[in-house]
Sequence to fold (72 residues):
Amino acid sequence: MRKDVYLSCEANGIKGAERAANRHRPGGDLYRPGNRVRVEHGNIPQWGSAIPTSRTYGKTEPGYRIIVENDN
Fold:
């Protein structure tokens, strides 16, 4: 099983997240047979939050997760 997670910031809105998700759905340029795609709203990591010396280290912000799962 393959699972990929893509992030979309709150400023893009649900329309932006859905537009990115549509690339993985039938007819999209990244579509593969067996893809299951869902969009979840919640907190996502801020840019640079994984770098210990960053001022955003460990911080999150509202946004969207585009989750693509494929069993093939």
Summary: The CA atoms of residues 35 and 70 lie 5 Å apart. Strands lie at 2-9, 35-45, 60-70. DSSP finds one helix and three strands in the chain.
